[in-house]
Design brief:
The protein is mostly helical and about 120 residues long. The protein has helices spanning about 5-30, 30-55, 70-120. The longest helix has about 55 residues, at about 70-120.
Length: about 120
């Protein structure tokens, strides 16, 4: 696959990932199991965030109030959709990096083979 085709495919995948992330948000608000998962994720992120902030400010023991369910579903759905978009973009970057390393390695191997052939001819 040429470089331009790979870039266009990458752009297409990222473009398709955004509506999928929006669908994840919608599903989180409608389905009970997904809603519970989003609430758990949001509460964990909220607790971790506040604990880290307070420890950076020097506070040791604080009482962290949980988010209400509506806010937790919204935050959890946002977290999941952003995580999905980030993972798609990250995997595309890793694939492009792997592809370029593989191409460079193949070129080095081809040059080494050519050198060996020329040395054997001499």
């Amino acid at each position: 696959m040429s470089g331009i085709a790979l870039k266009l495919t990458s752009l297409l995948v990222r473009t398709v990932a955004k509506p999928i992330a929006t669908a994840l948000k919608t599903q989180a608000k409608e389905h009970e199991f997904f809603k519970r998962a989003c609430i758990g994720i949001a509460q964990t992120v909220h607790t971790t965030d506040l604990t880290l902030r307070m420890s950076l400010l020097g506070e040791k023991r604080i009482k962290i109030r949980p988010l209400n369910d509506t806010k937790a579903v919204e935050n959890g759905a946002n977290f999941l959709s952003e995580f999905f978009i980030f993972s798609v973009a990250g995997s595309l970057i890793f694939y492009e990096s792997y592809r370029s390393r593989k191409k460079a390695s193949d070129e080095r191997d081809a040059i080494a083979d050519d050198i060996n052939v020329l040395q054997s001819e001499i």
